[in-house]
Design a protein that fits this description.
It is found in: Membrane. Its main location: membrane. There is one protein chain. The chain starts with a helix and ends with a helix. The chain has 14 helices and 13 strands. The protein has 309 residues and is of the alpha/beta class. The chain binds adenosine-5'-diphosphate (ADP) and magnesium ion. Magnesium ion binds next to helix 3.
């Protein structure tokens, strides 16, 4: 393509909310064979909310939620925010009292924690009252030798089959409860996947979440090629494995954990509302944060480059 054609196309893109970083990225766009979508925050709204909190110990619900929320308070993960938001409702009157007393501090009911650590792709760990608390997935429980009864496992499976993420909680090495978290699909997601297929492009979903939830979400949106339980560095491996046959691969993502994949892709597309690190790693930025613009961008690339031949 001529420099003029590229300049015009980049301008049309910008006017439509698609920032394209350079002519090479624009040219690669027309040959895309695969588009890999991150699940959380890309295909889904990333506005997770707790739908179930089940206690599997003698603890009462309020006590359980206070422990879990305290453990998650230092995490930036969307799941952590959902848990805090949910627990907050159980402390409405505490927050109100604090306000009346002039403290004006919400979340004053959170417990003190020590030795907090976030374990990417697994969950969080810290100590409360000198006892270890773990909040996360099965892998986190397995690595800490927390036994999960068949009863609890069945409950988690049930959540996952209905597209929810099951979060397990262990305190002092006992499994004390499970949270079910739902994150709805973006409204345009299914239509965009269908559109890509019509353009002869293969959609793929990649996620750090578990297989059962991943499959349920993929089915809802119309994707059959799913890669689940993938650690952040593994997202780049998925990109490279699809590139092996010489195919041009795009990846769409929003999170810090997507940046290795976005950098490895021939065309990395970042959701505009995503993290700065994802935006930096990408070739295209979808400023309106709508998945429709994945199609806008590819269509623009195809049209510009064919018109000037
Ligand atoms: P994705 O690739 O879908 O964005 P992540 O890699 O961020 O997912 O997380 C993968 C899984 O790790 C989550 O589904 C959850 O089970 C667990 N996890 C990660 N962070 C947390 C957290 N702060 N609290 C609980 N679970 C977490
Ligand atoms: Mg994400």
């Amino acid at each position: 393509a001529t420099p003029t054609a590229i300049m015009v196309a980049t301008g049309v893109g910008a006017k439509n909310g698609v920032l394209i970083k350079g002519g090479d990225a624009l040219e690669r766009g027309q040959k895309i064979k695969y588009v890999i979508f991150d699940k959380t925050g890309t295909l889904t709204q990333g506005k997770a909310s707790v739908t179930t909190a089940k206690v599997f110990s003698s603890m009462d619900r309020g006590e359980f939620l206070t422990l879990v929320a305290s453990a998650e308070a230092s995490s930036e993960h969307p799941l952590a925010k959902a848990i805090l938001e949910y627990a907050r409702h159980f402390h409405f009157f505490d927050d109100l009292t604090d306000m009346k007393d002039g403290h004006n501090k919400s979340f004053g009911w959170l417990l003190d924690v020590s030795d907090f650590s976030a374990l990417p792709g697994q969950g969080v760990q810290c100590f409360i009252d000198g006892k270890k608390i773990l909040v996360g997935n099965r892998k986190l429980m397995a690595e800490n030798c927390v036994s999960v009864s068949e009863h609890v496992e069945n409950f988690v499976v049930e959540l996952e089959e209905s597209a929810k993420t099951g979060i397990l909680v262990a305190y002092d090495n006992d499994l004390i409860g499970v949270l079910g978290i739902a994150d709805p699909l973006k409204r345009e997601a299914a239509v965009v996947i269908e559109g890509l297929k019509k353009m002869d492009i293969n959609p793929v979903m990649v996620t750090g979440d578990n297989w059962r939830t991943a499959r349920a979400v993929a089915k809802e949106v119309g994707i059959t090629d799913v890669r689940a339980e993938v650690m952040p560095a593994g997202k780049a491996d998925v990109v490279r494995s699809l590139q092996k046959g010489g195919s041009v691969v795009a990846m769409v993502g929003d999170g810090i954990n997507d940046s290795p994949g976005l950098a490895a892709a021939d065309v990395g597309m970042a959701i505009g509302a995503g993290t700065d690190i994802a935006i930096e790693a990408a070739d295209y930025v979808l400023m309106r944060s709508s998945l429709e613009d994945v199609i806008t961008a590819i269509d623009l690339s195809r049209k510009t480059l064919s018109r000037i031949r």
